[in-house]
Amino acid sequence: MNQSDYPLSEVPTRARKGLLSTSAVLLGFTFFTATMWAGGSLGQAFPIGQLLWIILIGNLLLGTYAAALAYIACKSGLNSVLMGRFCFGEKGSKLSDFILGFTQIGWYAWGTATIALVLVRTTGMPEWLEIPLMVLFGFGFCITAMIGYKGMDWLSRVAVPAMMLFILISLFTGLVDVRGFTGLSQQTPTESMGVAAAITIIIGTFISGGTQATNWSRFAKTPKIAVIATLAAFFVGNGLMVLTGALGTMIYQQADIVDVLIAQGFVTIAVLMLFLNIWTTQDNTIYNFAVAGCNLLRTEKRRLVTVAGAAIGTVLAVGGMYNLLIPFLVLLGTFIPPMGGVIMADFWLKHKGCYPALDIAQLPDFNRRGLAAYALGAGAAYVSPLLPPLVGVAVAAGSYAMLLRLNHATLSDTLPSPAKQ
C-alpha cells in the first residue's frame, strides 16, 4: 500500500497503464447486480426484438458520455472531482465532492446489504447472521480499494474473465431451455413501459459510475486507450449486464444472475459469481468515495478515508439501505449527469482542451458560471419527462457555454488572495 494513487494531483506518465489493465478495472466496475435488476424490468415490458434495440441505444448513449469524460481524464490526468475545481472553483468543487461521494457510499451500502442477504438466502444460513455478514463484507471489500489501482487491477484480471465465463454458461443454458430465439420471440410482455423510460433506466443505472470512472481512465497511457476501455465497460459490459437481467426475467422470472444460475442448477458457480460480482464493484465504489473525500478534505490520506467510508456504508447497510434502490437511482439520474456536462463544456470551451497544471492554476473560490450551469442542468433533469439524464447534461453544457459569453458582475469570479493560498 505504498502508492497514494494521486488523489489530489495529476497521474504522472510513469504511472500510466495499458489497455488490458484499464479495461479489466472498468469492466469489473460495470459488472454489477443492480444493473441486471434494471434489465429485468425491461425484460417484462418489451418483446425481444425491441428490447435489443433499446439496450443498444441506451448503452451507446451511456458509453459515449463516459468515454467523453474518459478522454478528458486521460488528457489531463485528473479525475472528475479534481476537474470540478476548474469548473466549480476551489470551494465550489466541494459541492461535487459531497454529491459524488454521497451517491457512492449509497451504492456501497446497497452492495454490502445485498451480498449478506443473498448469501443467507442462497446457503440457508440463519437470518441472525445477516448483520454480522454485512459488517464482515463492509470492511472486507474495501481492502483492494485501500491498496489502490494495483489492488483493483489484480482482482479484476481474475474476476472479469471468470464472470464472463459464468454469464456465457448461463446465457447458453437459458437459450437451450427456452428453445433459442424462436422461444424468446414467443414471450409476451407482462408490464407496460415507454421506450424513453426504458432508455432512462439503462442510463440511470450507471451514469453516476460513468461520471466517476475518470478515477481509472485517467491512468490510461493514451486517450485512445481510455476511450476504448471505457466503451468496453459502459457500452459492452453494462449492456451485457442489462441483457442478462432481461433474459433471466423472460426465461426464469429472475433478473439476478445468481438466482438464474441456482435455477439452472449451478449453485457453486452462483456463489462464486455473487462474490466476484459484488466485490469488483464495491472496491471501485468505495475508492470513488475516498477520492471525493480526499478532495473535499484536501487530504492525501486516501486509505484512512476509504476505511471511514466503509464504516459509513456498513452502518447504512445495517440500517436498511437495501430497500431504497429505486429512489436512489432516480436521485443519481437527476443530479449527477449535469456535472459531466459542465466539466466537458469547461474543458473544451473555456480551457480549449488543455487544463493548466493544477498546482499552479489560479482558481477562484467559486466559479459562479459553473455552479449556475449545474443548477440549471439539475433543475432541467428534475422536471424533464423525457430522458432526464441526457437533458441534464445538455442543459448544463449549453448553459455554461452561454454564461461564458456573458460579462456580468454577478458572474465574475474573484481569485483568492495570495494570503489565502
Automatic annotation (TrEMBL):
Per the record, the domain of life is: Bacteria
UniProt keyword Zinc present:
no
One GO molecular-function entry: cytosine transmembrane transporter activity
InterPro entries attached to this UniProt entry:
CodB, Pur-cyt_permease
Q: Where in the cell is it found?
A: Membrane
Q: Name one GO cellular component term.
A: plasma membrane
Grouped into one coarse class, the protein's main location is membrane
UniProt xrefs under Gene3D superfamilies: Hydantoin permease
Transmembrane annotation, as ranges: 20-39, 51-74, 95-119, 131-149, 158-175, 195-213, 225-251, 257-279, 304-322, 328-349, 370-403
Say yes or no: keyword Transmembrane present. yes
Membrane-related topology note:
Multi-pass membrane protein
Q: Which family does it belong to?
A: Belongs to the purine-cytosine permease (2.A.39) family.
Put simply, this protein is called Cytosine permease
